Amino acid sequence: MSSHAKPALAVIGGSGFYDFFDNEATHVEVETPYGAPSAPIAVGEVQGRPVAFLPRHGKNHEFAPHTLPYQANMWALRSLGVRRIFAPCAVGSLRADWGPGTVAVPDQLVDRTSGRPQTYFDGGGVHVSFADPYCDDLRTATIKSADDVLPMKGAGTMVVVQGPRFSTRAESRWFAGQGWDLVNMTGHPEAVLARELEMCYAAVALVTDLDAGLEEGSGVHAVDVFAEFKRNLVPFKDLIRRSVAAVTETDTCDRCRVHTGVSLPFELP
């Protein structure tokens, strides 16, 4: 890949979102100190600008949320030149008024995962600021790119659970009782690893279901989640393309830089 084709922008596709480009794309295999990423990274164009695309779960959904190579994925994108990432994902809603087909651009994250490697800093006194986990520039680009097809919510708190199981009704009610809005299985550690590598990052969440505590019945089923995501995939992809096109700056914004006050324990690619 020539230097002028290095992508500063990237999209990480979630469940059911395994390709992105309508035009021709180049597939790049990247090895990292953390192994291979979920799949070769596709580099194509959006309105004449090079953009990288990585299917989070692999091309054929090989990886479950708790087995994803998060460190390799983020490192691979950074090594190709990426500085800003849109991260589409499927989520359950913890609010009855945010039904399936709603798009939310969360501004806060709660981590309820366990056992996932969630840092590149295994030594030294490095503590990364994460008070605001998502990039305001990218969030604004997505919010302004919304149309009338998919209802848009411009903020919200997303709680990330370990998976691969869905929540019990009691857990779901507990999450909702905390004032949290969305539940997801992949948003952490992806967001914090992006911050450690000084990449802007924004989750763009498509609601596929009401979580178990919000309605009667047999609970959430994966087949229904995938079906709802597929039903909205075309307008959701269109929204992501418009969001990418709306980004004017391609370097990391100042708020998403690490600012640890010490030298990094590795050389950023």
Automatic annotation (TrEMBL):
CDD domains per UniProt: MTAP_SsMTAPII_like_MTIP
Site entry (Important for substrate specificity), positions: 167, 222
Protein name from the UniProt record: S-methyl-5'-thioadenosine phosphorylase
GO cellular component annotations of the record: cytosol
Residue ranges annotated for the Nucleoside phosphorylase domain, each copy included: 9-224
Source domain of life: Bacteria
Function of the protein: Catalyzes the reversible phosphorylation of S-methyl-5'-thioadenosine (MTA) to adenine and 5-methylthioribose-1-phosphate. Involved in the breakdown of MTA, a major by-product of polyamine biosynthesis. Responsible for the first step in the methionine salvage pathway after MTA has been generated from S-adenosylmethionine. Has broad substrate specificity with 6-aminopurine nucleosides as preferred substrates.
Key word Thylakoid present: no
Organism: Nocardia colli
Record: residues binding substrate: 185, 209-211
Gene3D superfamilies, alphabetized: Nucleoside phosphorylase domain
Pathway: Amino-acid biosynthesis; L-methionine biosynthesis via salvage pathway; S-methyl-5-thio-alpha-D-ribose 1-phosphate from S-methyl-5'-thioadenosine (phosphorylase route): step 1/1
MF-aspect GO terms: S-methyl-5-thioadenosine phosphorylase activity
Subunit structure: Homohexamer. Dimer of a homotrimer.
